[in-house]
Write a structure and sequence with these properties.
This protein is of the alpha/beta class. The chain has helices at about 45-55, 85-100, 115-125, 155-165, 180-190, 200-215, 245-255, 275-290; strands at about 25-30, 60, 65, 75-80, 105-110, 130-135, 170, 190, 215-225, 260-265. The strands form two sheets. It has an eight-stranded parallel β-sheet, with helices on both faces. It has a two-stranded antiparallel sheet with strand order 2-3. Helix 5 (about 180-190) links the parallel strand 7 (about 170) and strand 8. The protein is globular.
Length: about 290
């Protein structure tokens, strides 16, 4: 992992990170890549912004009644992502993720655009061939190509399906896509509408997913735009009508009861959010995920 991570480029660590990774249960890595963003670029600064925002929140979670010091995690720094070189960047991210997972530690990736998920899933799938992926997102990301490109943040989940198979993807909170993408999602039968992730329905929805997946190794990918732009405006392609923070957090904490081997939070773009609240929202999600893992 050291050959593809340059810790000197990482300014700061996530709040309460251990000083070494050998005794950690979870390893955090940054993937500062936004080579294919079609909307507003800037998610390459997401990992740095999330780490900075972590200093603005408490290390104690009243929901879980635990402190980050209990989580035993190590923030290893950022993966080298040569600007404009998609293949080299994805290969580096995959190598870093694989080096974490093969030591039987859990992985938490800070993006970066959603395409970084492809590299992380590729690494996880090598070790866990029966991997399931849960996608929280506003957008389907199931196009086979976008503007003639196979590898794009708009095709990320289609490339994930190339790895794990269409029948191993669950999509939650989707509210934007092409007619073809929606036809595909409906035919697969594992698209969960936003309405079922909110209020009284959310616990029942979570349990149905847990029962369906069982003990299979699971990777969670969280595009911050699954949240309503009123909550998280700092993202490249905001989409009205999203989840509230409480609904997302409730679902995540329930689904983290699964056999989760890796998680990512992607598409945080501090460049378009002068308030900094999107980074704070992401940092709080990271805190709860670390504690729940």
């Amino acid at each position: 992992m050291n050959s593809v991570i340059d810790s000197s480029r990482c300014r700061g660590r996530f709040l309460e990170s251990m000083d070494r990774g050998d005794q950690a249960r979870t390893i955090v890595i940054g993937a500062p890549m936004d080579h294919t963003v079609s909307g507003r670029p800037g998610s390459r600064y997401g990992p740095e912004a999330i780490r900075f925002a972590s200093e603005l929140i408490e290390d104690y979670s009243p929901i879980l009644d635990r402190e980050l010091a209990d989580a035993r995690f190590y923030d290893a720094g950022d993966v080298l992502t040569p600007f404009g070189d998609i293949e080299a960047s994805l290969n580096n991210i995959e190598a870093a993720c694989k080096s974490v997972l093969e030591t039987d530690k859990r992985l938490l990736v800070l993006g970066g655009e959603h395409l970084v998920t492809v590299a992380a899933v590729r690494a996880a799938h090598r070790l866990y061939p029966d991997l399931t992926v849960l996608q929280f997102d506003a957008h389907a990301d199931l196009r086979d190509d976008y503007l003639g490109q196979k590898f794009s943040h708009a095709t990320a989940m289609r490339r994930v399906c190339d790895i794990i198979g269409m029948d191993s993807l669950w999509q939650l909170g989707i509210r934007s896509g092409t007619r073809e993408e929606y036809a595909l999602m409906r035919s697969l039968g594992r698209m969960v509408d936003s309405e079922l992730l909110c209020g009284a329905d959310r616990s029942e929805t979570a349990q149905k997913i847990i029962d369906a997946i069982g003990s299979r190794p699971t990777y969670l990918t969280i595009d911050i735009d699954v949240l309503d732009p009123a909550v998280a405006p700092g993202t490249g392609t905001p989409e009205p009508g999203g989840l509230g923070f409480g609904d997302l957090l409730h679902m995540l904490l329930r689904l983290l009861q699964l056999n989760v081997v890796g998680v990512d939070i992607v598409e945080v773009n501090p460049v378009v959010d002068s308030s900094g609240r999107t980074s704070i929202v992401a940092a709080k999600l990271v805190r709860e995920i670390l504690l729940a893992l």
